[in-house]
Amino acid sequence: MPSEDHEREPASRHDPGAHRPLIELIDLHKSFGSQRVLEGVNLNFRQGQTTVVLGQSGSGKSVILKHIAGLLRPDSGEIRYDSLRIDHLPERDLTPMRKEMGFLFQLSALFDSMTIAENLEFPLIEHSRLSPEERRERIKDVLAVVDLAGVELKHPAQLSGGQQRRAALARAIIQRPRLMLYDEPTTGLDPIRAAGISDLIMKLKNETGMTGIVVTHDLACMRKVADRVVMLHDGRIIADGTPDELASSEDPHVQHFITGTAEAELDRFRNESLLGPPPSAHRGARA
Ligand SMILES: Nc1ncnc2c1ncn2[C@@H]1O[C@H](COP(=O)(O)OP(=O)(O)O)[C@@H](O)[C@H]1O
Ligand SMILES: [Mg+2]
Fold this sequence. Notes:
This protein has helices at 61-68, 91-98, 116-127, 132-145, 161-173, 191-208, 219-225, 243-247, 252-275, and strands spanning 21-32, 35-46, 50-54, 76-81, 84-85, 101-104, 179-183, 211-215, 228-233, 236-241. By secondary structure, the chain is α/β, with parallel strands linked by helices. It has one domain (21-281): P-loop containing nucleotide triphosphate hydrolases (Rossmann fold). The protein starts with 20 loop residues before the first strand and ends in a 12-residue tail after the last helix. Residues 1-13 and 281-287 have low confidence and may be disordered. The structure holds adenosine-5'-diphosphate and magnesium ion (MG). Magnesium ion is lined by residues 61-62, 183.
């Protein structure tokens, strides 16, 4: 596996590996006590693509991401990373693979007591052999990518909710991951800042060729970032296609999800127009 300090060539259509699956989930089953969450999930995530995973709240989307990150183990089935079976590997053997992954989870909080630069430097000190000068350069570059140039010496509380989310994204990509896992990356942000995060997800894919898996309820985000959309329902994948194919699907569960989510978005928009932006627009849930 390439080290995290390796420059990665952007995947292009000339790259024979471009559409090979990077992650394969094969007949994945997972229950918690008597609650069956995954009941035979079969799903490949192709290299260089962004796949959006839709599904009702509680359907098991985060559970899927946690299996990919090696934070949960399946009851049965297989998980492959770059063709290597990983679901039964001991914890220490997961480290090289985790170094190639970046995570933006709902609770990936920045450390309040550290500056932004310190927050970003932390994973580099732990996991890379970069010199202090190289670390400073890397931090500067990554902050520019997320449109936060110059905030190195600020503390998280001095940033808006949207800026904090972008700083968390900067931290997630600072080791130049091959695979980014995004769990509800735009949740809690107002529509304009949410669109900013969606733009960044798209830009990262286009500029670095990184593979992305995005769990979201945000249909605008889905339309913007998805090469492919899948929908999880009753423990299985019930739809798989382009955003347009999904929108025109006749499956009642897919229709219900899309219509219901669109209406909820419209309601939220109406309420915000009447009442002003929600507090999260200023304060924001820390990403
Ligand atoms: N570690 C856990 N222990 C027990 N139940 C869990 C655990 N993780 C998730 N669940 C349950 O699995 C279901 C799916 O959860 P989750 O994947 O978080 O849903 P979502 O699709 O909203 O992300 C939920 O009912 C949740 O309560
Ligand atoms: Mg979730």
